[in-house]
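Notes from the 1:1 (GR / supervisor)

We went over the backlog. Supervisor wanted to see one worked example end to end before approving the batch request, so GR pasted a single chain during the call. The sequence is below; no edits were made to it. Supervisor asked that the structure be written out right there so they could see what the output format looks like.
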Amino acid sequence: MKTTPSALSRWTTRISSAIAMVALSSMVACEREAPDAQSAKPDVEATEQVPAKPSDEAVRQTAPPASQPTDVQSLVGRWVRTDGGYVIEIQTVRDDGTLKAAYYNPGPINVARAEARDKDRGLEVFVELRDVNYPGSTYTLVYDRAKDQLHGIYYQAVAQQNYEVVFVRQ
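Structure output shown during the call:
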């Protein structure tokens, strides 16, 4: 059986496509951690594809206007994301604005950095996650005192996508 250059090219293209599909499937499967298949939940559903970290404008569009300074101690507590069981637990707020915080999905994920700052749009909470499948994913959230909610943008680093999210106090 003789192989022509065009037949070889078609096979090479098919093999390359199959390898790319397997690699993409592996990345998606690794990202979704759950104890078993019955309790597996997708991390989030995309609202828009953005190839970079959220801009200030993206966060500003989801934030209410700031009416008055907020006591940062009001952030202390357990916050649950409304689209799943993802939890940010703010244990303490230091004078310099750094937070002692934990993140769960459902098990613990390393929080590399957490801080709160009074910004022109209100009290902003920034949380950076650095762990397996969380290579620099971030939350940039604004505290809505009237609703007692945190809302803003989750940047999913593996997929390089931004998602609008809301956390409510548990």
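Supervisor's comment: The two ends are 69 Å apart (CA to CA).
Batch request approved.
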